[in-house]
Amino acid sequence: MSSENLQTKWGQFIPLVIVFFFWGFVAASNDILIPVFKTAFHLSQGESQLVSLAFYIAYTVGSLIYMGISVLIKEDLVNKIGYKNGLSLGLLISAFGTLLFYPAANTGSFPLMLSGLFIVALGFSLQQTVANPLAIALGPIATGSQRLTLAGGINNLGTTIGPLIVTFAIFGSSTGASTLSIESVKIPYLILGLAFLLVAILLKFSSLPDRPALIEEEIAAEGTTAKKSALQYPQLVMGMIAIFLYVGVEVSTASNLPAYMESLINAKTGVLYTLQEISPYISLYWASLMIGRWTGAIEAFTDKASLQQILRFVAPYLAFGVFLAVNAIAKHDLTPFYIYGLIILVLIAADIASKGNPARMLLIFSALGIVALAVGMSTTGIVSIYAFTSVGLFCSTLWPCIFTLAVSGLGKNTSQGSSFLIMMIMGGGIISWLQGFVSESIGIHASYIVGVLCFAYLAFYAWSVSSILKKQGISFDKKLSGGH
User: What pLDDT digit, counting tens, does each position of 168-190 carry?
Assistant: First the structure.
């Protein structure tokens, strides 16, 4: 490893994570758009999930376009245009997508709204392809997964405030009576488009490297026998299914939560929950991912075991404090949320038990995800709401776990494997639509069985991939000894 790569390059990493923030902001805001569009366009629950489907299927289409162009030019597209140009191009594509919200809102066109979201996510696909390996490359490979987890924490800062800001922008108040007008959607998304343009310019002239020394070089040095295609590695093929189902359960749990809560009576008001009352719970769900990711990223800051033990308890409650502060500014009643602090202790215990092994962490957190959904399905009221919300805690570190396990040992095929994994983000739309469709037959409450099945496969992948990697001479207990 080169001497210049012994520590995280914060001057380059900080501007990079702005795009992670955007992904989270838009993805979580979709959970507010779903019930808004459902009401405005008179959609069924299954039809309303076309919002998630259009958004997440764009990742697959974007990856296919990316690979197709690379084949035509006989060179990897990002390697040809450079990483900074790749990020800027992705942001410009997303900015164009936001422009479609203006005519879509004026004409009341649901298909045009979906087209706008699709193009925004198409740009995100290119950004993801560039930003994930770049986050790993901006420092020592040993803490690459922690940097990816930290970037995910910034992503979830966006998911925490996104639903609150979009709710305020659409209704004019986060707590008052709603005056729903589909035209109110266009202004916040035009502002978002302007932000995309400004950040595209910022990154273009930033110090980010155009062609960083990527993880492939480090893995190749281990002497692993390389194969011609990434798809020849079972850990990647199984990991692709895992990414599909992980993103699916993460997104569908949140995107179907408003429909579930709208069927419940608010114990405080004595009437059914309104969308404005639901938005802080959507915010809490995505904040739960931020809480878990801040906890899992502490090794990116320090290698001192004593300080890590302290930060393991400080980081999650600091993230929880961000959620409380944002909702206090939005003038929400914080009293119902304090009890959630006890559930965070379960996350901390699970993080300690994982001992830094991504396969063990994936197994433990998937099992806890199953427990959370089972509790939610077998209870009602606020208990079930918090059970479903806590799924965010147990999804929080699964992306870097699966990503790390899936690309380990791929050598020169790591970049190709990464693009295949990004393609599988489409699971967020397909699983959300599937749960919405299932809910029309068995009810929204029981439909969370879809998430249980997703977590069951993730637990199976965690159990089986360890033996697959050990046969290839890869052991994370050895590589990550002393980890969190």
Answer: 777 665 444 445 567 777 888 88
Q: Are 116 and 98 in contact (CB under 8 A)?
A: yes
**Distance separating alpha carbons of residues 97 and 94, to the nearest angstrom:** 5
Q: Which residues pair with 81 in a beta bridge?
A: none
Identify the band that residue 227 occupies on the pLDDT scale cut at 50, 70 and 90. low
**DSSP β-bridge partners for residue 272:** 265
**Residue 484 and residue 360 in contact, taking contact as beta carbons nearer than 8 Å:** no
Q: Among positive and negative, which fits the CA dihedral 236, 237, 243, 245?
A: negative
Phi-psi region of 301 (alpha: psi -120 to 50; beta: other; left: phi over 0): alpha
Angle subtended by helix axes 110-137 and 50-73, to nearest 10: 60
Paired tokens of 224: 């692993």
Among the listed residues 366, 420, 438, 367, the one whose alpha carbon sits nearest the alpha carbon of residue 397: 366
Residue 138's Cβ-side half-sphere holds a number of Cα atoms within 13 Å equal to 27
Here the tokens at position 213 are 């020394």
H or E element at residue 34 = helix 10-40
Rounded CA separation 465/480 (Å): 16
Higher per-residue confidence, 215 vs 238:
238
Half-sphere exposure of 59 toward its Cβ, with a 13 Å CA cutoff?
26
